[in-house]
Amino acid sequence: MEWDRELSSNITSLYLLIVFIVLVYRRNKLDRNIDTYIASLFIVVFLETFLNFVKLKNNVIYYVLGSLLFHFLLLYVYYYQFLQTKKLKGLQMLIILLFLGNYMFFAIDDKTFFTVFPIKTYFVNIILLILSIGIFFYNTFNSEKIFSLKSYFPFWLSISLGVLYLGILPILVFSKLVGQE
After folding, report:
1. Rounded to 5 degrees, what angle do the CA atoms 70, 72, 75 make?
2. Which of 31, 40, 53, 147 is deepest in the core (most CB within 10 A)?
């Protein structure tokens, strides 16, 4: 049964790498802030590819630092760059500060933070990301961009991130509930 897990991991890494290459190739046609998202995706691609091929005894620290800290921080900054009003920028900055506070709190409070994947931190990060996407939608729907949503890449990226991370939430909850029984 180990071969199927490794095969799916290789396919996922290949898929992420292809998406990353396409985004880098077409970045000039997407939007002015795409480099922040590409940097965020690079972290995920590098982690998945590197940790897939280099078998480490405990690779949680790489996910905690790479994915939970830098990947999510870059996503929050990506959404901050689109906001137009001072009020919305302040709200997004509050989300970034809550994210950093959440990360530091759990890093200090949880003794297994770097050895066992911190599901609570990940859960809070997803909630904060969904709030960021909501602020972005509010900003977009109250601007002229609403007339060109069909070709507005950040809108479709936000839809996909929202679906992806909202889909992960039930899996996190059920895995935690099943793990406790």
Report:
1. 110
2. 40
Q: Specify the amino acid at residue 176.
A: K
Rounded CA-CA distance 94/102 in Å is: 12
User: What is residue 84's DSSP assignment?
Assistant: -
3 state DSSP class of 133: helix
How far is residue 123's CA from residue 40's CA, in Å, rounded to a whole number? 18
Closest CA to 128 of 167, 100, 163: 100
Q: What is the pLDDT along the chain (181 residues), one digit of tens a residue?
A: 576 667 777 787 788 888 889 888 988 888 888 898 989 988 988 888 887 777 767 678 888 888 889 999 999 999 999 998 999 999 999 999 999 999 999 999 989 888 888 888 999 999 999 999 999 999 999 888 888 888 888 999 999 999 999 988 888 778 776 766 5
Give the span between the Cα atoms of 171 and 164, in whole angstroms.
Answer: 11
